Protein backbone atom coordinates (compact mmCIF):
# COMPACT_ATOMS: atom_id res chain seq x y z
CA UNK A 1 0.00 0.00 0.00
CA UNK A 2 1.35 3.41 -0.96
CA UNK A 3 1.76 6.10 1.70
CA UNK A 4 0.97 8.80 -0.83
CA UNK A 5 -2.16 10.22 -2.38
CA UNK A 6 -2.51 12.05 -5.69
CA UNK A 7 -3.58 15.63 -5.09
CA UNK A 8 -6.00 15.67 -8.03
CA UNK A 9 -8.02 12.82 -6.53
CA UNK A 10 -8.24 13.92 -2.87
CA UNK A 11 -11.74 14.47 -1.44
CA UNK A 12 -13.19 17.95 -1.90
CA UNK A 13 -13.08 18.48 1.86
CA UNK A 14 -9.27 18.42 1.91
CA UNK A 15 -7.80 21.96 2.18
CA UNK A 16 -4.95 21.41 -0.29
CA UNK A 17 -3.94 22.92 -3.60
CA UNK A 18 -4.41 20.29 -6.27
CA UNK A 19 -2.10 21.52 -9.03
CA UNK A 20 1.00 22.63 -7.12
CA UNK A 21 2.39 19.09 -6.92
CA UNK A 22 1.46 15.55 -7.91
CA UNK A 23 1.44 13.82 -4.53
CA UNK A 24 0.42 14.47 -0.94
CA UNK A 25 0.22 12.34 2.20
CA UNK A 26 -2.44 9.65 2.46
CA UNK A 27 -4.81 9.54 5.44
CA UNK A 28 -4.32 6.61 7.78
CA UNK A 29 -6.98 4.43 9.34
CA UNK A 30 -9.20 6.18 11.85
CA UNK A 31 -12.30 8.32 12.28
CA UNK A 32 -14.18 10.24 9.57
CA UNK A 33 -13.64 7.71 6.80
CA UNK A 34 -12.29 8.88 3.45
CA UNK A 35 -13.17 12.52 4.21
CA UNK A 36 -10.65 12.68 7.06
CA UNK A 37 -7.68 14.97 6.39
CA UNK A 38 -4.24 13.74 7.53
CA UNK A 39 -2.96 15.71 10.51
CA UNK A 40 0.25 16.43 8.59
CA UNK A 41 -1.71 18.46 6.04
CA UNK A 42 -3.32 20.51 8.80
CA UNK A 43 0.02 21.21 10.48
CA UNK A 44 1.97 21.89 7.27
CA UNK A 45 -0.41 23.19 4.61
CA UNK A 46 -3.11 24.88 6.70
CA UNK A 47 -1.36 26.22 9.81
CA UNK A 48 2.21 26.36 8.53
CA UNK A 49 3.59 25.12 11.85
CA UNK A 50 5.92 22.59 10.18
CA UNK A 51 7.65 22.30 6.83
CA UNK A 52 8.02 18.53 6.61
CA UNK A 53 6.89 15.16 7.91
CA UNK A 54 10.07 14.99 10.00
CA UNK A 55 9.24 18.26 11.78
CA UNK A 56 5.65 17.11 12.30
CA UNK A 57 6.82 13.82 13.82
CA UNK A 58 9.09 15.74 16.20
CA UNK A 59 6.22 18.00 17.32
CA UNK A 60 3.92 15.05 17.91
CA UNK A 61 6.60 13.22 19.91
CA UNK A 62 6.54 16.15 22.36
CA UNK A 63 2.82 15.49 23.02
CA UNK A 64 2.23 19.09 21.98
CA UNK A 65 -0.69 18.43 19.63
CA UNK A 66 -4.01 17.27 21.08
CA UNK A 67 -7.01 16.10 19.08
CA UNK A 68 -10.22 15.87 21.10
CA UNK A 69 -8.16 15.97 24.28
CA UNK A 70 -5.77 13.16 23.34
CA UNK A 71 -2.09 13.54 22.41
CA UNK A 72 -1.58 12.28 18.85
CA UNK A 73 1.57 10.55 17.63
CA UNK A 74 0.56 9.65 14.05
CA UNK A 75 0.94 12.36 11.38
CA UNK A 76 -1.51 10.46 9.17
CA UNK A 77 -4.30 10.49 11.78
CA UNK A 78 -7.48 11.67 9.99
CA UNK A 79 -8.88 15.01 11.13
CA UNK A 80 -12.51 15.74 10.33
CA UNK A 81 -15.70 17.62 11.01
CA UNK A 82 -16.01 19.13 14.52
CA UNK A 83 -12.72 17.73 15.81
CA UNK A 84 -10.97 19.92 18.39
CA UNK A 85 -7.28 20.71 17.87
CA UNK A 86 -5.34 22.09 20.83
CA UNK A 87 -1.80 23.47 20.88
CA UNK A 88 -1.30 24.03 24.60
CA UNK A 89 2.16 25.60 24.34
CA UNK A 90 0.83 28.19 21.92
CA UNK A 91 -2.45 28.51 23.83
CA UNK A 92 -4.24 28.03 20.51
CA UNK A 93 -7.43 26.02 20.07
CA UNK A 94 -9.40 25.26 16.92
CA UNK A 95 -12.63 23.56 15.91
CA UNK A 96 -12.81 21.92 12.48
CA UNK A 97 -15.80 23.41 10.69
CA UNK A 98 -17.15 23.23 7.12
CA UNK A 99 -16.22 26.14 4.88
CA UNK A 100 -18.07 27.22 1.77
CA UNK A 101 -17.48 24.68 -0.97
CA UNK A 102 -17.17 21.81 1.48
CA UNK A 103 -13.54 22.30 2.49
CA UNK A 104 -12.66 21.82 6.13
CA UNK A 105 -11.42 24.95 7.89
CA UNK A 106 -10.20 25.78 11.38
CA UNK A 107 -12.27 28.10 13.58
CA UNK A 108 -10.39 29.61 16.56
CA UNK A 109 -12.10 28.92 19.89
CA UNK A 110 -11.26 29.55 23.54
CA UNK A 111 -9.83 27.01 25.96
CA UNK A 112 -13.18 26.32 27.63
CA UNK A 113 -14.85 25.46 24.31
CA UNK A 114 -11.96 23.11 23.48
CA UNK A 115 -12.95 20.78 26.31
CA UNK A 116 -15.81 19.20 24.37
CA UNK A 117 -16.83 18.41 20.82
CA UNK A 118 -20.01 18.07 18.82
CA UNK A 119 -21.19 14.91 17.11
CA UNK A 120 -24.23 13.95 15.06
CA UNK A 121 -26.05 10.74 16.06
CA UNK A 122 -26.05 8.48 13.01
CA UNK A 123 -27.06 5.23 14.71
CA UNK A 124 -28.89 4.24 17.90
CA UNK A 125 -28.77 0.64 19.11
CA UNK A 126 -29.70 -1.19 22.29
CA UNK A 127 -26.85 -3.16 23.83
CA UNK A 128 -26.63 -6.02 26.31
CA UNK A 129 -28.08 -4.97 29.65
CA UNK A 130 -30.66 -2.62 28.18
CA UNK A 131 -28.55 0.52 27.77
CA UNK A 132 -28.38 2.30 24.43
CA UNK A 133 -25.31 3.10 22.38
CA UNK A 134 -25.21 6.12 20.09
CA UNK A 135 -22.73 6.14 17.22
CA UNK A 136 -21.67 9.62 16.17
CA UNK A 137 -20.62 10.79 12.71
CA UNK A 138 -16.92 10.27 13.46
CA UNK A 139 -17.35 6.75 14.81
CA UNK A 140 -17.37 7.73 18.49
CA UNK A 141 -19.71 5.62 20.64
CA UNK A 142 -21.61 7.14 23.55
CA UNK A 143 -23.53 4.93 26.00
CA UNK A 144 -26.73 6.13 27.68
CA UNK A 145 -28.91 4.44 30.31
CA UNK A 146 -32.14 2.89 29.06
CA UNK A 147 -34.35 5.26 31.06
CA UNK A 148 -32.64 8.32 29.51
CA UNK A 149 -32.29 7.13 25.91
CA UNK A 150 -35.81 8.06 24.86
CA UNK A 151 -35.01 11.76 24.62
CA UNK A 152 -32.35 11.17 21.96
CA UNK A 153 -32.87 10.24 18.31
CA UNK A 154 -30.79 9.79 15.17
CA UNK A 155 -30.17 13.16 13.56
CA UNK A 156 -29.81 14.90 16.93
CA UNK A 157 -26.44 16.37 17.90
CA UNK A 158 -24.58 15.81 21.16
CA UNK A 159 -21.77 17.79 22.74
CA UNK A 160 -19.47 15.29 24.46
CA UNK A 161 -16.85 16.13 27.10
CA UNK A 162 -13.44 15.10 25.74
CA UNK A 163 -12.20 13.80 29.09
CA UNK A 164 -15.19 12.16 30.74
CA UNK A 165 -17.12 11.32 27.52
CA UNK A 166 -20.27 12.60 29.26
CA UNK A 167 -23.00 14.35 27.26
CA UNK A 168 -22.93 18.05 28.18
CA UNK A 169 -25.43 19.38 25.62
CA UNK A 170 -28.13 18.00 23.33
CA UNK A 171 -29.50 19.69 20.17
CA UNK A 172 -32.68 18.17 18.74
CA UNK A 173 -33.09 17.63 15.01
CA UNK A 174 -36.43 19.29 14.36
CA UNK A 175 -38.08 22.13 12.49
CA UNK A 176 -36.72 25.44 13.79
CA UNK A 177 -33.32 23.99 14.71
CA UNK A 178 -30.14 25.81 13.69
CA UNK A 179 -28.10 23.68 11.27
CA UNK A 180 -25.06 23.80 9.06
CA UNK A 181 -24.69 21.92 5.80
CA UNK A 182 -21.53 19.80 5.84
CA UNK A 183 -21.64 18.39 2.30
CA UNK A 184 -23.28 19.04 -1.05
CA UNK A 185 -23.47 22.30 -2.97
CA UNK A 186 -24.49 24.27 0.15
CA UNK A 187 -21.69 23.03 2.40
CA UNK A 188 -20.69 25.65 4.95
CA UNK A 189 -24.02 27.47 4.87
CA UNK A 190 -25.97 27.98 8.09
CA UNK A 191 -29.70 28.49 8.65
CA UNK A 192 -32.79 27.23 10.45
CA UNK A 193 -34.76 24.16 9.41
CA UNK A 194 -38.02 25.28 7.84
CA UNK A 195 -39.44 21.90 6.88
CA UNK A 196 -38.40 18.25 6.98
CA UNK A 197 -39.99 16.20 4.20
CA UNK A 198 -39.98 12.45 4.81
CA UNK A 199 -39.53 10.54 1.56
CA UNK A 200 -41.35 7.18 1.37
CA UNK A 201 -39.24 4.14 0.64
CA UNK A 202 -35.46 4.29 0.39
CA UNK A 203 -35.20 7.87 -0.83
CA UNK A 204 -33.42 10.57 1.16
CA UNK A 205 -35.47 12.84 3.39
CA UNK A 206 -35.33 16.45 2.22
CA UNK A 207 -34.64 19.44 4.46
CA UNK A 208 -35.56 23.02 3.58
CA UNK A 209 -33.37 25.56 5.39
CA UNK A 210 -34.28 29.24 5.72
CA UNK A 211 -31.76 32.09 5.91
CA UNK A 212 -32.02 35.86 6.26
CA UNK A 213 -31.39 36.28 2.54
CA UNK A 214 -33.23 33.24 1.22
CA UNK A 215 -32.49 29.60 1.91
CA UNK A 216 -31.66 26.27 0.36
CA UNK A 217 -32.78 22.66 0.10
CA UNK A 218 -30.62 19.64 0.76
CA UNK A 219 -30.87 16.07 2.00
CA UNK A 220 -31.08 15.11 5.65
CA UNK A 221 -27.68 13.41 5.65
CA UNK A 222 -25.96 16.70 4.78
CA UNK A 223 -27.15 18.79 7.74
CA UNK A 224 -25.94 18.84 11.34
CA UNK A 225 -27.75 20.58 14.20
CA UNK A 226 -25.61 23.18 15.98
CA UNK A 227 -26.20 26.20 18.19
CA UNK A 228 -24.99 29.78 17.95
CA UNK A 229 -21.76 28.91 19.78
CA UNK A 230 -20.63 26.99 16.69
CA UNK A 231 -21.08 29.82 14.20
CA UNK A 232 -18.29 32.09 15.40
CA UNK A 233 -20.70 34.95 16.03
CA UNK A 234 -19.98 34.94 19.74
CA UNK A 235 -16.31 35.71 19.08
CA UNK A 236 -17.22 38.68 16.91
CA UNK A 237 -19.52 39.98 19.64
CA UNK A 238 -16.65 39.93 22.14
CA UNK A 239 -14.35 42.08 20.01
TrEMBL record:
CDD domains the UniProt entry points to: KOW_RPS4 (cd06087)
Gene Ontology cellular-component annotations: ribonucleoprotein complex; ribosome
Similarity-based family: Belongs to the eukaryotic ribosomal protein eS4 family.
This protein's encoding gene: rps4e
Domain of life: Archaea
Domain Small ribosomal subunit protein eS4 N-terminal: residue ranges: 2-32
UniProt KW Ribonucleoprotein keyword: yes
InterPro entries linked to this entry: Rib_uL2_dom2, Ribosomal_eS4, Ribosomal_eS4_central_region, Ribosomal_eS4_central_sf, Ribosomal_eS4_KOW, Ribosomal_eS4_N, Ribosomal_eS4_N_CS, S4_RNA-bd_sf
Organism expressing this protein natively: Haloplanus litoreus
Alphabetized UniProt keyword annotations: Ribonucleoprotein, Ribosomal protein, RNA-binding, rRNA-binding
Domain Small ribosomal subunit protein eS4 central region, chain residue ranges per copy: 91-167
GO BP annotations listed: translation
UniProt-recorded Gene Ontology molecular function terms: rRNA binding
UniProt protein name: Small ribosomal subunit protein eS4
A Pfam cross-reference name: Ribosomal_S4e
Amino acid sequence: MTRHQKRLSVPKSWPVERKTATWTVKAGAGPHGEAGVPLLIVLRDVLGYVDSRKEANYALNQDSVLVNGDAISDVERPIGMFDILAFAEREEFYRVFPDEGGRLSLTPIDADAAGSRLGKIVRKTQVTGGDFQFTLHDGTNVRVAEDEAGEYATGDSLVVDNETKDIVAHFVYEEGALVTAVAGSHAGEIGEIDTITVTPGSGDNVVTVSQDDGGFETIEEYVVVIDENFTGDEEEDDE
